[in-house]
Structure prediction request, 1048 residues.
Amino acid sequence: MEHRIKKKLPQAVWFLIVLVFFLLTVYPVIWMFCGSLKGPNEFYTNVWGLPTDPQWQNFADVWKNGAMGEKFCNSLIVTLGSLLLLIPINSCAAYAIGRLRFRGRRLIYGFLLMGIMIPSGVLGIPTFTVALRMGLNNTHLGLILIYVGQSIAMGVFIMRSFFISLPKELEEAAMIDGCTPFGSFLRVILPLASPGVMTQIIFNGLTIWNEYFMANIMLTKAEKLTLPLSIANFVGQHTTNYPVLFAALTIVTLPVVITYVLAQKGFIEGVSAGAVKG
Amino acid sequence: MKIRRTLSILLAVALLCSLLAGCGSGGGGEKNATGDKPNRIVIIGSAYALEEEQKAWDEVCSAFTAETGIEVVQNRQGTWDDIPQKLQASKLGQEQIDLVVVGMGTITASLGPAGSVMDLTQLMAGLTDRFPDGVLDSCSIDGHLWCFPYSDASGTTCFYNKTMFQQYDLTVPTNLQEWANCAKVLSDNGIIPFMVQGKDTWAWAMPFFDTYGQATGGQSVEKVQAWLRGEQSFADPQVYAAFDGLKALYDNGILTSESFDTDETGMLANFAQGKCAMFFCGTWDYGVLKSMELDFDYGAFEFPVVIDGAQMCHAFATGDGAISIPSWVDQDNLDNIMRFVEYLTRTENAKKILCASSGGSPLFEIVKGATGEVDEVTRFLNEVSVPHSVEYLDWVWPSKVNDAMCNVIPSVISGKMTSQEAADYVQQALDTMVSEDDYVYDWWNSWSDEQWQAVTPGHIPDVTAFFAK
Amino acid sequence: MTKLPRISKSTLHRRAFPYLMCLPAVILFTLFVILPFVEGCRVSFFKWDGFSNMKWVGLKNYANVMHDDVFWLAMKNTFVYAILVTVMKNVIALALAYVLARKFPLRTLFRTGIYMPVTLSYVVIGALWTWIYNPTFGLLNALLKALGLEHLIVGWLSDSRVALYSVVAVDVWKWIGYHMVLYLAGLQAISQDLYEAAALDGANGWQKFVNITIPQLNSTIVVNVLMSLTGAFASNFDIVNILTGGGPMHATEVSLTYIMTTAFKYNSMGKANAMSMILFLLVFLFGFAQLRIMSREDAYE
Prediction:
């Protein structure tokens, strides 16, 4: 009896700790959603409470005024396009650097790794200039290429770390079965490194979806703008209409939350199925 | 097998192809080929603050297009801070921009010295009588006009809770002692007497405009200009007095520590909920107050005299949402541009846009005839406050100095720094600018002929030809 | 006829294979990261306001940076920030992941919830935490008052003694979920057999953790530590900017905020790029050292 209580106690303490973190992290999302339903001046009188008179039309207004539909599509194009490019590019490079022996491997790895340490803040205009010289300013393709390029350093680093943790014998086994080098990569190694791929998707997808700085510099035509750029329009010079801003933010955040909720089931649960056994 | 290998090669090739395909397809460069001049005007600026504002602009622009056949493209996106970078990106991409909505502060700080905006003196000569006297002064430097104002002017002022004052039998303070007495009564009743939006760092310079104006007898702008030219040091008794005046607010319990962590919204929330009785702000907050359903009366009052023997002196300027022309515009489009400017400055159009952008009624008359309802606060501001005001000092001194000021003021107020140390700190900021960046206050005096050439329009369209018949 | 030995086609393909695999990455990286970086390096030798002409000044920008007290204060702040943030993020995230990796009530709910702040934009985070730290309406002060700890109340973002820690707290809060997910993935990949074998040998929970979990998680830990460290140097601009803008009196100024201010507010692109270069060198040495110390390369070196 005492034994069971002794076991339960740390369990209960942990539960409380996790619960506290959970509340700390989930409440803001709820707060943001509640905020988006408040009246225009309700923030001056009711910051933390529930909306007194839910203004659902805030969402409709924001959607229409901010041309969110168009921006939503643009954000989808840019994010999905970037992911479709960066996953294969980073995986291939990381695989080669991690599991193949070739001259210059360390050099290439070191070269790409430098990217993690380059502070990109002031490099907005120079990056824009590169895209400009290729005629890609104000295009989604240009923005996608920039995002992919900027993801390479971290992406290759993470994917490589997943790749090298797999046993050496896998390729040999696959080749004995008649696979080509690329085939063994595609069919054997990559699936086992799927947590790495999922990490890439989650992290890069999120970063690109919310990215403002480069999008702001690259895109000036109204029909090309992405969602984060619309957020800037709701932030006033002096005072901000918070409910409207929060409505816009909820629209921007909701797809990410939904995607994560759906993905994480597959991601974390599915990893153990792919774990290497013997 | 072979297919897989080929696929990887194809991927690389496809990538290269797409890169090449990207070139020249849909790039933003709208290079005007000879003889192919788009009959349109592009105006960029920060995003519209209000839906009504956007409607007003759309109406005016459509009417203009209907009348003249010139298309107007409005590209209103992002914040004020984005504008310089957007201009730069557009210039590099050779995108057409004819008019830019920008603050005079940005022009004095960066766009002007960089030669990015055009000298409008000659261009606007035929339209200056459409602006009340003195309105264009804020937008001029040394006789050169760099922009024209097209949004409500702004100044600094204070608001107080009338109902609360009546309740506690208080009168509006006019000097430090009265203010302190007021504050004591209020804080004894658990109310924050006076707030400044201290969390917004840039806001700390504003009360200094008042105290320094008081200390210099209304000559604060001239003194700062002399200082920036290197003719005197910042460490002088009047500056100390100005700093000490602010410190006195804290020492006398008028300004409390809550202000340090409260931003604009928080300050208004405190006032709206009756938690604070007075606050200091820019006149732009009056629009917010008007839109709130407050259950008490409120009014505006002047920042009291906090330095012995001084006169009140506030800040006011008219160049907030001003319109300017980038210096690299296609000179052939100047006729179209000036036609549009003439159209915008017609009373009925200006009234439409300025009223809409001010949420109904502008506080000040920027273009003749563009006025709305006049209420007690508007009358107070125009007849009492503005006559006691001078130009914003942060439109005179550079941003680095402004940041230094905004950093030291809360430190001085809370006693962490003495006035002398603060003045030395700011002086050092200027000295560093001079030694590192070759800062020169009157950049317009040090320009070469070439630089002037780059900002001078090629020809001056006759605006009288555009007048309504 | 004797066939001369020649490189067969398949060997050529085999040799080229790794290079082809790396090619797209290297091309895009060079174009969109290295080229701008080189351009930035070039600008650091000029005086430029971002609009008009550049003027060659050689090493003057670097000299100015060396003499700039604010820059060094920002560097110091950034180092403190980096260490605090890395330790807190990794310890807390690992603990949470460890607990949530095995059977735990409402496990999926917690895993999803804790990740939420990662999805929030900086605009929301700024608004939220400004209100939480607000002296009159703020939740933090309300909580402290309710617990009777009123004497602990300070200006959370205005008092230079605590401002940096307040910002660090927000950064940690935002990213815990992300690191937790990475640790969860790493933990899932550890074979249960190892734990069972250890249990047979009589190891307790803590010993299992130290002797099995940590070593097995080595690469995951390296990734997480590197990300938190470099994040503190290269990606914390938004969070610091929206909360304090670098104030009060540069107490929360980090290298990125100072670089951005210098570039876009003071229009000193040359000096800002010089700062970037110096920052890059420092991060390079720091990161390089960290990788050397922490990485344990498997059989591929």
Q: What stands out?
A: Residues 297-301 of chain C have pLDDT under 50 and may be disordered. Residues 9-43 of chain C form the longest helix (35 residues). Chain C has 13 helices and two strands.
